[in-house]
Amino acid sequence: MELAGIQGLKGTVSVPGDKSISHRCIMFGSIANGTTEIHNFLKGADCLATIRCFQSMGINIEETDHTITVHGKGLHGLSAPLNILDVGNSGTTTRLLSGILAGQKFESKLSGDESLNSRPMKRIIEPLTMMGANISSILRNGCAPLYIAPGNLHGIHYDSPVSSAQVKSCILLAGLYAEGETSVTEPSLSRNHTELMLKEFGADIRTLHSLSGTEATAYIKPYPKLYGQKIVVPGDISSAAYFIAAGLIVPDSEILIEHVGINPTRSGILKVCEDMGGDITLLNESEAGEKIADILVRTSSLHGITIEGDIIPTLIDEIPIIAVMAAVADGTTVIKDAAELKVKETDRIETVTDNLKAMGCNVTPTEDGMIITGGTLHGASIHTLLDHRIAMAFSIAALVADGTTKILDSKCVDVSYPTFYDTFEQLL
Ligand code: S3P
């Protein structure tokens, strides 16, 4: 994909359904009783991998243009897959599915692409093992492929060293099949879609927040009767983030993004944009399980800020595009406490800083983030390393750079946003 500088992005767009929520609809719908009807499901490669995994465990999932229907078989209705479960590029599929598989009475193996199979799985193997699960890394390197055999699970309390919704959700899902209550404390609250949605399906699940610090603990009781639901998936704020940034940094722009999920555990990007001086307004706010709003952005002159602490888990996937905004803002932006970036689809401290440097930006990688001083960007060849968020973030950088920017392997946007470049064209 080749892109060049542009002015005046104008119009109203909507973005595809939320990736995290789409995964969970399929998973919870499969282990619930009855039918789950899903609207605005994200048909990106990651969520399609989740569908395929559950289909190969005997779940009937029907796809039409507008609706996905999951015919759930209850907590114990999955059947042994005949082949290795292919999780593709998806960390969410791998970690959440492992929690469910740990509670099954059959053996399974799961494996993904090269990037997925190099991401850390010890973070789920350890707590699942504490619960009595039989789970191992087949190559004994702490990564997928994973082998999971039946085990007798018991509830634990787990103090997670990281604020990770994937780790938390994995343990809570295993907790559905464990004797006694299971609880997970995380240093600060990560996205809580599992807690919100499992409750809607009928699970006995609650969250308590520490009074003195930022810690949050989720508790779940085993063996609930889960019931199929009708779910309208909100637009993905992580996908909206690219158009929010474009609206703020491309001269003479005004963009309205409709029906975006603004769950507070996901919407740190909005606060960051405001703190940087962005003209951003929420319209038509409503709540049905998850909060949603329309987001209006207008071109603004941005300034550098420090981004650190509790807000990091609420914007972890948006750091590549925040870094792009910082690269054209006035002054210096410091991003700290974000070491988790190193274990995403790529090491995003490296992929973001290497590509920003290629565009002429003054940026320094650090152990847990980066320091970026704003200036002028120049067209370059962007090495996405097949990371969808790098492809999209640098496509927006290209719009404010001198000359032409080439996004290598731009097709990787399929992972979370197959129609990304089509949405973009609606604004020209
Ligand atoms: C996700 C959680 C986050 C996020 C990922 C999706 C989820 O990962 O980066 O894109 O759906 O639970 P961690 O929970 O590991 O930080």
Structure characterization notes:
- The chain is built from 12 helices and 25 strands.
- The strands form 7 sheets. The chain has a 4-stranded mixed β-sheet. A 4-stranded mixed β-sheet has the order 4-5-3-14, with helices on one face.
- The protein is of the alpha/beta class and 428 residues long.
- The model has no long low-confidence stretch (mean pLDDT 97).
- It has helices spanning 19-30, 45-55, 91-101, 122-130, 165-175, 193-201, 237-249, 268-275, 319-328, 348-358, 388-399, 420-425; strands at residues 2-4, 10-14, 33-39, 60-63, 67-73, 85-88, 108-112, 134-137, 146-149, 157-159, 182-186, 205-209, 216-220, 230-232, 254-261, 279-288, 290-298, 306-307, 332-335, 362-366, 369-373, 377-378, 381-382, 401-402, 404-407.
- It is globular, with a radius of gyration of 21 Å.
- It binds shikimate-3-phosphate.
Distance between the termini: 16 Å
Shape assignment: globular
| Relative helix content | 25-40%
Q: Given the helix and strand composition, which structural class is it? A: alpha/beta
Tell how many strands the DSSP assignment holds: 25
- What is the mean predicted local confidence, pLDDT? 97
Sheet with most strands: 4 strands, mixed
What proportion of the residues form beta strands (DSSP E)? 25-35%
Radius of gyration: 21 Å
Number of helices: 12
Q: What is the topology, as strand order, of the major beta sheet?
A: 2-15-17-16
Low-confidence residue ranges:
none
Query: What compounds sit in this structure?
Result: shikimate-3-phosphate
